[in-house]
Amino acid sequence: MDIQIENLMPEGFVYEKTYDVMHGAVNGIALLIIPVKALNQFRIQLHADIEKSGVKDNFLAFLQELKQRHSTIQYTGYNGNDTITLNVESTERDDKDNLTLIVSELTSKCLECGIRNCCSQCRNVLPLRAAALDGTPVLLCENCFTQEINGTSGQNGQKENIFLGLLGAVLGTLLGAVLWVVIGMFGFIAGIAGFAMVFCGIKGYDMLGRRLSRKGIVICIVTACLMIMAAEYASLGIVIYQELGDMYYLSLVDSLALVPAFLEEPEVIQGVAKDFVIGYALAIWASFSSVRHIWRQVEQSQKPHTVVPF
């Protein structure tokens, strides 16, 4: 692929030499054409939400027919989300004619099926503009482009509400606490209950707090640790109720009120301490991988992006 890229672009396309990408529109459909020199191919990228078009199977079948008609097409694919990709082999001499014909047929099919471009970030069907996001060519709507420029992408334009987030974390971890108590009634300690506390706490924080930050994850973990203590306290109260309730006519509330007195007994303290050690160890073991993954996702989403318009 030694030929000058500028000499093989389809009509209406512009070549951005810095990012080695051609961008333009055919039949009103915006496309990216990226030279893949290592494979001696061109990658044509179409961002469109074919899931909502109602003609997904028809369009995917068309891509296979297109590949059969053009021997230069080495690959056609759909990522199941919003990107259709065609890899076209470079023949140098006929590249311009091949690319022009293929993008013309591709976009004509889009018009026939009522398929329109969608933003590669938010997937909304809006007018797009080509840009380089962290050095990667993309097609963005004006809203996502502005968010990237202003450093607010991934935040949905909303500010984190720590108070409501904390409330969501408490409600979420409470679900896990119920699971902890139920499992404890059968004489078991399960790491899945600790995982449920952390996971539900994070989900609750994200839902009510409107945005999840690293600070929010820490709050959720601390809340889960405290909720494990509360769940263990409740479990001990239920044991007292089951063992002594009928004998001393104790209600569940009375049994819970007796927990501090029972905790003065060395044997009870030892048993509770053992449950805590095992419970926290299992909770950490079950939750560590998931929390680390969420932490990295949040960390990545909060990193400032570099966006350069074409």
What does this 3D model show about the protein?
The protein is α+β, with helices and mostly antiparallel strands and 310 residues long. It contains nine helices and nine strands. The chain has a six-stranded antiparallel beta sheet, with helices on one face. The protein has a three-stranded antiparallel beta sheet with strand order 8-7-9, covered by helices on one side. A hairpin with a 2-residue loop joins β2 and β3 (29-36). α1 packs antiparallel against α2 and α6 (214-248) runs antiparallel to α9 (266-301). It starts with 12 loop residues before the first strand and ends with a strand. The mean pLDDT is 87.
Overall mean pLDDT: 87
- The termini sit apart by 24 Å
Unreliable segments of 5+ consecutive residues: none
Which strand order spans the largest sheet, edge to edge or round the barrel? Answer: 1-2-3-4-6-5
Helix content: 40-55%
- Class computed from helices, strands and strand pairing: alpha+beta
Radius of gyration: 29 Å
**Number of beta-strand segments:** 9
What is the beta-strand fraction? Answer: 15-25%
Number of helices: 9
Largest sheet: 6 strands, antiparallel
SSE succession: EEEEHEEHEEHHHHHHHE
Q: Shape, please?
A: elongated
